[in-house]
Please model this.
Amino acid sequence: MDHPLRLAASRLPARSWRTAALLAAAVAAVELVLLVVAGTVLLAGNGSSGGATAATPAKRGARPAPAARRTERHAAAPLARRRVAVVVLNGNGRQGAAAAVARRVRRHGYRIRSVGNAARMDYGRSIVMFRPGLEAEGRRLARDLGVRLVGPLDGLRAGQLHGAQAVVIVGA
Model:
């Protein structure tokens, strides 16, 4: 014969449950703080070791060792600036932006093949793109203009270049 189980004797008062829940929350909060501190220490330890290594100078603004300077030099561009033709495209929508950059490009000694509008007008930054095999010329053009984004031609067909070796898309 089955007898009903009496749970009245096994029940704990509500105060005990609240105490247990608060204690569990406190333990969880302490564990969270410890994890955040440990993660911060580990991440900060990877970025700055405190001492100078051969790859990083000891002070900000300090010059690297002569051997490191030699490896940072850029390869010389085989084509002279006067032999590099450039297409300048306006990619920001401001009237006259491409013409102004084309004048700067011309002042540096490059030939301007054409000036026009890019397919889009939402470029946030200016870009210099170069034909295959002309990376050194593209990087030199970008340095001359102060443009940081440099890469191979992307999204343009050879017919759109009008024989140019590099393209500058003027961004915002």
Summary: Helices lie at 14-47, 66-72, 97-107, 135-145.
